[in-house]
Every structure is written in C-alpha cells, then in structure tokens.
Amino acid sequence: MVLSFCSVYLLPPSICPLSSTGFASAAASLRPLPAEVRSQRNAVFSREQARQRALYPRIEKIEVSMHGPGLDGTLLIMNRGMSTPLSCARHLTEHHVKNSALALVDGEPWPLHQPLTSSCSLTLLTFKDSDPTLVNQAYWRSCAALLGQVIETAFKDEYTVELLSTPEVAVTSGAFCCDVVLDPQLDSWTPSEESLRSLTRGAQQLIHQDQAWEPLEVVPSVALEVFSHSRCKQEEVEQKASQNPKGTVMLYRCGDHVLLSGGPLVARTGLCSQYEVTALHNLGQGSWGVQRRAQGLSLPLQLQAHHTVWRKLRQRAEKLVRATNLCFLPQTVVQQS
Amino acid sequence: MRLTLQMLISHGRMARRMGLGPESRINMLRNILTGLVRHERIETTLARADEVRFYAEKLVDYAKKGDKDEKAMKMASFWLTEKDLVPKLFKVLAPRFETQSHGYTRMARIPNRQNLDRAKMAVLEYKGNPFPPLYPAKKENELTLINQLLKGYREERAQQLDAKL
Questions:
Q1: How far apart are alpha carbons B81 and A211 in whole angstroms?
Q2: Cβ contacts of B31 within 8 Å, gap of 6 or more
Q3: Is the model's pTM score more than 0.95?
Q4: Cα dihedral sign for B37, B43, B48, B50?
Q5: Which of residues 123-162 of B touch A (CB under 8 A)?
Q6: Span of the secretion signal (chain A) (predicted)?
Q7: What domains appear along chain B, each with residue ranges and CATH number?
C-alpha cells in the first residue's frame, strides 16, 4: 500500500476546546496556509541573499591557500564574496567535490556554500579524516534539520506544526532528534509504523533530489521578519542572537524551506545515503503545547553500513535520547531521569 | 634417444632448473638459506626466494627437534655453510616458532631489478624479525561516524548487561 507523501494516517480530528497555547489564539481562518508561509520566508531569504551578493558589485580577488593531504602550498585566486569553498574544491578534483562535507577557514568551521570574504587558509573536511568530529557533529545537525523539514511538510494543511530548536546531541547517543509541537487536535495521536515509514520516504525523496543547504548570515531583524508567522521561532532567533558573539544568526535554505541552525550544516542532502525516521516520542506538556521528539538515524554515502549492523543501530535509535543541553527543554521535562 | 616433442615442451613440470645442474641448484639454495638465517630478511629473485622458502621452513622443522638430535644437527651443518649460524638456528629460530606449526616465512614482491634483465625480485623474511613490518597494519579510525555509533551501541549493551547482573 503506497502512501502519498503529504497524507499521514491520522485519527479524525475531535472538537478540542480552546487551550491557552499560541495557536488557538489565531483562529483557523486567520492562520496563513503553510504554502503561503513558505513562499513568504523564501521571498525574504532570496531578497536578503540578493542584497548580500550585491554588496560586491565589482570582482575583487582574494588568495586562498589550501591545506590538506597532497594540497599543502596550493594557492588559489578566487573572487571575494562569490567564491565558496565548493568552488575551490571544483578547481581541484571530483573526489574533493563529492567527498568534502565541511570546510575549515582559518580554523573556523565554514559551510561549503558560504562565500569567502577575505584571503584565508582553507581545509576541506571529509567523513574519513583522521579527526572527523566536527564533520560528524555537522552531519548530525543536518540530518536533524532534514527531519524537521520533513515533519513540517508532512502534515495536512489544517494541522499546524511548530519546530522547536533541535537539541545538540552527541553522536554516540545513537540518534539525532528534532523537537516539534503539533496541532492541539493531534494531542492524542501516536504515530504508527506506517506513518514513520511515510516520513522516511519523504526524507528519502529529499535526499534523492540532492538539494544544497544554502547558508546565509543575517542580522536578527531580518531573521525575525523571516519567521514573522511563528512566535516560537522568533524567540529562538533572539536566543541564538544573544549567544552569538557577532550578534548575527545563520539561516539555511533547503529547497524552499528556510530553517535556523546552531552550527554549520553539511553541503547537500545527497551526502546522506541511509536515512530512517525511527521514532516519535511524547515528551509531555511544554510551554508551547505537547512536545514531541522525533528521532532518526542516518549514515553518509561514504560510510554505508551492512544491513545487519544497520538493523542493530536502528533498534537502538528507537529508544528515547536524552539531550545533554537542557536549556531548550520546557521546565516539566527537565527532571526526567 | 628419441627426440620427442615432449622433451622440448615443459607443460606441467613443477621442478625449477637453476644454475648449472641439480648440484649447483642445491649449492645456490644453501648459500641463500645461509644468508636468510644470518640476516632474517633478504632480497633475491622471485624464483630463488620461492625455492628457498620450502627449504627454510623444513630447516626450522628440523631445528625444532633440538640440537641433541643427530639427524637435525647433520641437516643444519649441511645447509648452513657458515657454522656460527648453527647455534643461532637452534637457540633463536627454533624457540621463536615453537607455537607455530607452519608458515615461518613471508615473501613479498618488490619492483623489478633495474638491470637489463628486469628480473622479478622478492623479499623473503622469517616472521618475528626485528625489522619494521613489510605490510604495515592499517588501524581503523575510531572517530568516524559509524565507529562512534557502534561505540555507543557497545557501551549501552555493556551497561545493560551490568544492570542485569
């Protein structure tokens, strides 16, 4: 039985009393359609991206010195504000283009699609380096972002989905997680295996489309405008802006979905190969509604696992993962042990 | 004698012909074997190394019988032309391979000789020699994503087992 991507088997919506969460205050007729929200966010993102590109009207050259096995001493002359670490990799070999997931610019993790602004030293990081901890963390974050995107687009238009910030989980915990608050009508809904599988299929479709995660560094006011329809996202923007020493916020766009992230993401969705949404746990009542934690497991294209190993890891990924970073969890959940 | 075609074609003949004749062949192998026992790693042509391998392993089998055994001592003194290597054979090489029953030598090909003959060369060594390894063992990186996931999995299993016990 093939499930279409946008339909999830749900219980018939019961008439729920108006609760004090942020959604029911905006009645269903006033709430904009998800498609409209997406196109608005897209428009603001594109506008800001075009504005940032227009800051460099004439081509200025910068010198990028490469570091890495076999590349030490290579000097590339690139364009300021236009060339990305990916374009530097394209000057090298196809192996560098396909395998690099993240770049290190002057020792700082840098997304592959973000333009370089000054002469620097560049190192391309892959999954098979001698120390791939940064890449692993970025990959985990990207998979969680992908999961958030899939969940946001999976439900029918009449149900709202709010993505909370993705907790930073260590790779050894076994699964990446994405916190989400669903519509109050779905409070009693528990996902069946079929719905988890349809979410997985949605994620696999995105991976197959091989979309790039385009980064954009914006001031908090632009980010607040992007997320003008979602109060929870605006709070997250303010929190991230206060934590960042530069005061800016990193937005990423994948396809037509704009998201917020706490750190660099990998280059493309096509880097993931094995991806499965393993579970959707109920965390309890939070400040925005009933919080759910969606968990998944994924491995990149270069590190595929045999199906026996994958099955064991997947079984472990179904268990609830406790995030070590507790500041994003609502107060009721903190004391769980 | 009948000059048959079989005399000119050598299909299926396994025995190699080296030097001037069978006696010359044995003398050459004796010299190479002495060099192997002295230095524990030598470089020769592929064919000679392959021939010496059989004799090197048989020599170690004889040495395992102990230096009190007459046959073993006769063999050792025949095959080792430099007599100061006979105690080394019985006292160093035989105890080293006490636990193993076969496979005391290792052969690895190296680039061909740069002379006009471009002969195939090989390195022959006794295992357990003090030199750096011919094939360095590749250590798998513990920090890759899949190894980290497996590490977490193993730790959780260990925790569960401890909790059960």
A1: 73
A2: B81
A3: no
A4: positive
A5: 141, 143-146, 148-153, 155-156
A6: none
A7: 20-132 (3.90.1030.10)
CA distance A118 to A138: 23
User: Given CB atoms, is A171 within the 8 Å cutoff of chain B?
Assistant: yes
Number of Cβ atoms within 10 Å of the Cβ of A54: 9
pLDDT digits 0-9 by tens, A207-249? 999 999 999 999 999 888 888 888 888 888 888 888 888 888 8
Nearest to A213 by CA among A121, A75, A84, A119: A84
B-contacting residues in A 207-246 (Cβ below 8 Å): none
Contacts (Cβ under 8 Å, ≥6 apart) of A49: A214, A216
Q: Which of A131, A136, A173 minimises the CB distance to B145?
A: A136
Q: Which two tokens stand for residue B16?
A: 């190699």
Amino acid at site B164: K
- Name the β-bridge partners of A275: A298
Number of A:B CB contacts under 8 A? 50
Q: Report ipTM for this prediction.
A: 0.80
Q: How far is CA B162 from CA A315, B27, B98, B149, B165, in A?
A: 20, 65, 40, 20, 5
